[in-house]
Design a protein that fits this description.
Layout: E1 2-8, H1 16-31, E2 34-40, H2 46-57, H3 63-87, E3 92-95, E4 102-104, E5 113-116, H4 119-126, E6 130-134, E7 137-140, E8 145-147, H5 152-164, E9 168-173, E10 194-196, H6 197-205, H7 213-222, E11 226-230, E12 246-249, E13 261-274, H8 278-287, E14 293-298, E15 301-307, H9 314-324, E16 328-340, H10 349-360, E17 367-370, E18 374-380, H11 384-395
Parallel strand pairs: 1-2, 1-9, 2-6, 3-6, 4-7, 9-11, 10-12
Antiparallel strand pairs: 4-5, 7-8, 11-12, 13-15, 13-16, 14-15, 16-18, 17-18
Helix pairs in contact: 1-3, 2-3, 5-7, 6-7, 8-9, 10-11
Length: 404
């Protein structure tokens, strides 16, 4: 029998009624002749509520203890879904990340998977059981519970799909795929039928709530197609192309230089350092778990962008920078808007067109950066959504491409 991995997001398992619906979907997949491994996120807003409780006790809770605390949300969901499957006549067993063989490095809060040893999962699948796995978590080589950062349940699902040599990996949520922009910001956003691995990674790195970056890395390495679909849609069947969702694979049917999507990220910080040793600044950032992006270093000048929501303790970082890099400053009040597409920077045409569109919308960028798949503009935070809409009109809506 072929193995199928399904992942269900927090909104899909938010209450007992939704858990029963997911259990029925899992059972339908099992009845179609597949061995099923299910990965679940924490129910609804459980993770946010647990984090808020910790922050009421401490402004700077230890990351190790946060991992112990936050990983409980997925364990609750996995046990409840296993119970729901059994109530429908199925045979299910739940496993934590460590029981599933998810081995990570020893970095708390944003650990990376270094190895997957799915022996217990394989044994239970061979016995005909549905295996329900807690996403977002693993165990370090030091036997410490770790969590995988935002979107970590996606990473769990794709890593297991690779290790189990699954026929496909289905990522299910209350959204029916990947869109050219956040539909809440851009009503004209279009669902993308296919997106390349690289485009998906760039969207995620730019702040889109799409698949996790490391999850796509696993898929790219193993050539696994990821199907992003709505939980309310019927489960995938062999031979289907997932036309009612988005498939992430090696190649997407778009001409080089075209834009797949526009992504906005609110409340980012720009770090600028001049006159200090760039290595000392980067070492300080790394010591505080502050991963920068769009890094530019020229001589003694360094510039990069930080996502504020990923900073564990901003005040401690500011104090450390004041000691190790007196010339460094963190600028707040900014948003980042990115246009993403394969070969988008083959010429300067897209960069110039975007600059003109922003200027015409009354938006003055504070900076920009490019890569092979992305152009990012820093804009005033309050104008982030306006910038997304302006660039989406330019790069996506003006192309007249039909909705799949």
């Amino acid at each position: 029998m072929s193995i199928v991995v399904q992942k269900y997001g927090g909104s899909s398992v938010a209450d007992p009624g939704k858990l029963r619906a997911v259990a029925a979907r899992v059972m339908a997949t099992k009845a179609a002749g597949h061995e099923v491994c299910v990965v679940v996120s924490a129910m609804g807003d459980t993770t946010d509520e647990l984090l808020a409780t910790a922050r009421r006790l401490s402004d700077d809770p230890p990351r190790r203890e946060l991992d112990m605390l936050l990983s409980a949300g997925e364990r609750i969901a996995m046990a409840l879904l296993s119970i729901a499957v059994r109530e429908l006549g199925g045979d299910a067993i739940s496993f934590t990340g460590s029981q599933s063989g998810i081995i990570t490095n020893d970095r708390h809060s944003d650990a990376r998977i270094v190895e997957v040893r799915p022996y217990r999962i394989q044994d239970e699948l061979a016995r005909g059981r549905v295996v329900v796995v807690a996403g977002y978590q693993g165990v370090s080589y030091k036997k410490e519970v770790t969590t995988l950062g935002r979107g970590g349940s996606d990473t769990t699902a794709v890593a297991l799909a690779a290790a189990l040599e699954a026929e496909w990996c289905e990522i299910c949520s209350d959204v029916d795929g990947v869109y050219s922009a956040d539909p809440r910001v851009v009503p004209a956003a279009r669902r993308l039928g296919e997106v390349s691995y690289e485009e998906t990674q760039e969207m995620a790195a730019a702040g889109a709530r799409v698949l996790n970056v490391q999850a796509v890395e696993f898929a790219k390495e193993k050539g696994i197609a990821i199907y992003a679909r709505a939980t309310a849609a019927p489960p995938m069947r062999r031979g289907e192309d997932g036309a009612d969702g988005t498939v992430v694979r090696r190649f997407a049917p778009r001409p080089p230089g075209s834009v797949a999507g526009v992504v906005g990220e609110r409340d980012v910080l720009a770090l600028r350092a001049a006159g200090d040793d760039p290595l000392a600044v980067l070492e300080c950032l790394d010591a505080h778990g502050a991963c920068g992006k769009q890094v530019h270093a020229l001589g003694e000048e360094l510039a990069l962008v930080l996502s504020r929501e990923n900073l564990h303790n901003e005040s401690a970082l500011r104090d450390a920078l004041a000691r190790c890099a007196p010339g460094a400053r963190l600028e707040a009040g900014l948003g980042a808007v990115s246009a993403v597409g394969t070969g988008i920077n083959g010429t300067h045409a897209n960069l110039l067109a975007g600059m003109h569109a922003l200027r015409d919308a009354g938006i003055a960028p504070a900076g920009c950066a490019t890569s092979g798949f992305r152009i990012t503009w820093l804009v005033p935070d309050a104008q982030t959504d306006d910038a997304v809409r302006a660039l989406h009109r330019l790069f996506v809506e003006s192309t007249g491409q039909p909705v799949p």
